[in-house]
Specification:
This is DUF5641 domain-containing protein. Helices cover 24% and strands 25% of the residues. It has a five-stranded antiparallel β-sheet, with no helix packed on it.
Length: 123
């Protein structure tokens, strides 16, 4: 077989060329900067898409018991938001869940759903 599997990683190209330590250090610095640049783009763009308001975009499914969510805290950056598991849901008169009880590492707390970001774990 000439070609490998589509899910296998390509073989790294290893050469016996001597690379001076300074050049290696510069390559490592460029790689580190690229990683952090991509990380900041993901943090800025993706995490905020999890909190889009359903009223203005599309109908969102109700949050269910057992869902994992991020708890929005306007005083913290998104990567420092705490997570919790939905323990109980409290729907309004229209049947739409408005408030949930969450289990966190610090115990139970109630939060409105507009202050939560459901994580897309089952999609």
């Amino acid at each position: 077989m000439v070609h490998g599997s589509l899910i296998s990683l390509p073989e790294p190209e290893l050469s016996n060329e001597y690379v001076p330590p300074r050049a290696r250090w510069q390559m490592l610095q460029k790689l580190t900067q690229s990683f952090w640049h991509i990380w900041h783009i993901w943090q800025r763009d993706y995490l905020h898409t999890l909190q889009q308001r359903a009223k203005w975009f599309r109908e969102q499914p109700n949050i269910h018991v057992g869902d994992i969510v991020l708890i929005v805290d306007s005083n913290l950056p998104p990567l420092e938001w705490r997570s919790g598991r939905v323990q109980d849901v409290h729907p309004g008169k229209d049947g739409v869940v408005r408030v949930v009880t969450l289990r966190t590492t610090n115990g139970l707390l109630k939060r409105p759903v507009n202050k939560l970001c459901p994580l897309p774990l089952n999609q």
